[in-house]
Structure formats: structure tokens, C-alpha cells
Design a protein that fits this description.
Elements: E1 2-11, E2 14-24, E3 29-33, H1 40-47, E4 55-60, E5 63-64, E6 73-76, H2 88-98, H3 103-116, H4 132-144, E7 150-154, H5 162-177, E8 181-185, H6 189-195, E9 198-203, E10 206-212, H7 213-219, E11 223-228, H8 233-237, E12 242-248, E13 251-256, H9 261-269, E14 277-281, H10 285-293
Parallel strand pairs: 3-8, 3-9, 6-7, 7-8
Antiparallel strand pairs: 1-2, 1-4, 4-5, 9-10, 11-13, 11-14, 12-13
Helix pairs in contact: 2-3, 2-4
Length: 299
Amino acid sequence: MLKVDNITKYYGDFCAVDHLSFNVEPGEIFGLLGVNGAGKTTTFRMIIGLLEPTSGNITLNDKKIDYDVTDEIGFLTEERSLLTKMTVKEQCHYYGVLKGMTESDVDKRLDELLKKFGIESYKDKKIKELSKGNQQKIQFITAILNQPKLLICDEPFSGLDPFNVELFKNEIKEMAQKGSMIIFSTHRMEHVELFCKKLVVLKDGKAVLSGNLADIKKQYRKKNILIRGNIDIDKIKSLEGVLEVNPKGLEYEVKIADENVADKVFNEISQAKNVTKFVVEEPSLNEIFIDKVGETYEN
């Protein structure tokens, strides 16, 4: 288990991370979210041992994270960290040996991953000769060469087309199924909802939202109603507790202050003709994020 216990990090007088705590269990994909400057990168750097917390502790399977433990960690950074004059094979040998692998083990694992990602022919090509998407594949491969017990993914799908996003998703899920701990950070909230059962949202270094995603959605008072049919929009907008009414394709999305307002809306439309759908839904994670952080999550 990764245990982040009440960590704080100061740069001079600036507090980048403020009393942050969370745990990631084996086989779990955990979301760590926040806008730029929220403290995510500092947290990642403390987890992998590049920075020491000002206070608090971080342990991986009850061990303080040092150079021995970092061999069990993979980190896919948002920024490119490839040496572009190296070939793919040379780059992977470099990272693999740094993680304590033998060159023969690197070769075996590299062949397996290149085949899985459909780029076997790129093994002896220089990184600079590859497209942005294929460079991202190589960066991902270097992060998982050593089959890490803990994998940190910061914007893993950057530069990828939908087909390759699916390849990455499947690999991350497979690693979790085999017991790896995954920390997943992205601005694509639909990916977080797909992957993560637990998450933390940071703002100004503090956790403003944390816990099980299903519980967070359930406890969030605001709900959405999807209605299909001929309805009187103005009458619905005039109901107390109705926040917005927006067209959404062939339907209307009615945002309400809490689920009790749903009965008022239902009573209002019950006499309308051709109403074929009335569904009360939990809000999206994106809506909750904007409400808690006060802005959208965009790079």
C-alpha cells in the first residue's frame, strides 16, 4: 500500500502542499486531480523521492521511499522526458538498467511491449524520428518496463488518437488487475470516472474533495434530470430549486438544487404530451470539480 500521511511541503514561505493524506491499495486506480498549480506535481515528486516533505511521511508497503524503493515505481510524466538522439532500444536499456533490470530482461520485456503496442519495427529507430503519439507510447513503455508496483500516470493520453487511448486504458487496467497501484491524473474527467473508484481533488495544495467517487456523487446535493418530450421550459425554469434548463440533443437537461426538486418537476410535466423519458441522474465529476475548484480543469 502507498500511504501518504499528512504531508506538507513549503518552498520558502509558499505552501505548495498542505496536510495531504491518502492511501492507494494494491490493484487500485486512484485519481489525483487539480488545476495547474494545485500541488499535483509537487506531490508526485515527493512520492517518487525527488523531494522531501517539510512534514509528514510517505511509505510504500511500509518502507520509506528511497533509491531502493524507487525501483518499484514507474512514472509517466506529462512532459516529454525522452532522449531524442537515442534509439528506442537504447532509451529503454537506459531506463531499465536504472531500475535494476539486466539488459537481457529489458530486451525480453521491450519486445513484448513493442508488439503489444504495434510498433515492433521502431525498436532501432531514433526517438526524434517518431511521431508525437509514438513517442508517447515509448514514454509509457519506459514507465512500465520494470512492471512497477506503483505507477504514476500524469496525462497519459496526451497526443494519442482514440485507438491508442484504448490500448493505454487496457494496459493500465491489466496492471491494476495484476496488483499494481496506479495514481491517475488527467483533465479528462470522463477517464477518471471510468478508471477511479477513489480520488482526491487539490486546490491551492489542500484537498477540497476526497473519498469514494460513488459516495461523492451521492452526497452531492445537486442533480440532473433528463427529459425527452414536449415540455414548457419557462414553467420548469420558474420552479423553486430549478437551477438551469438546457437543450441536450433531443432532450432537455434540468439542473436541480437537490433530489427533492425532482418531484416538483415531475408534477409539472406529468400533463405534457409525448414525454418519453424522465431520468434523475447524479452530476458528472466535471460538474462537481468545477463547483469545488471554481474553474474548469484545462492545461
